[in-house]
Amino acid sequence: MEVSIIGSGTMATGITQVLCVNDQVTKINLIARNDNKALLAKAVCEKSISRLVRKGKLTEAQSINALEKIYPSSLLSSVIASDLVIEAVAEDFIIKMELFSELYNYVKGSTIIASNTSSLSITAFGSVLPNSKNVVGLHFFNPAPVMELVEIVVGHETSEDVVQYLKVFTQNLGKSPVVVQEAPGFVVNRMLIPMINEAVSILAEGIATAVDIDKAMKFGAHHPMGPLALADLIGNDVNLSIMETLYSETGDPKYRAHPLLRKMVRANHLGRKTKKGFFEY
To answer: Least enclosed by CB within 10 Å: which of 17, 61, 107, 237?
Structure first.
């Protein structure tokens, strides 16, 4: 099958890595805003695949075959022959809606169009596409090559055939899919991001240091990573966006983003991707 992945960031390159080493996928169009970004995104995939070869998880021949599947492009029209399109651009409703509106001109009626959104409305995205029954959420978690979970998010019009197809597809990728009806934050982020927001609140109140907050959850709740280190891994801009979506969609004050989280984003202390967040990298 031919797949198009739209985006050039961490999630787009991670999903590309997962797909290119899988026999189900014969071609991947890796589509970015310009040619340089597309080539850089492929270079990131090459680096990751090379690391797998060094660790003995892939042979040299397998790595060559995987990388030959990736075709970097800056043209959205590259999706035209795709069986599956996965959108993995910034977690911004307006940006995604503009992209889906433009995709209308290029996708076939039979193409499955999936968004890697972590909280936004699949139903809204489907409303601007030619076949809303084929529009679905396919939420991989970061880092995509490592994390087993994929949330398959069902919009108001999403067909059961598409859901079942993607369950088999993701299982064959070595993932563990869960089917989620569209709702703000879906399952994981509905619980996870408010927990991060509460950790930010505890830090802001001076109850404990960032190090001790994370230590408490690692050794007291057996979490593999503390909530503030996790916030930095996800990206504080993404954390804020999800909190704002939860609050705007539900109106529930328990989902109000803490002012310190807003301040961190304004200061560009986004976490690992800017080398500074609740910790320095």
So the answer is: 61
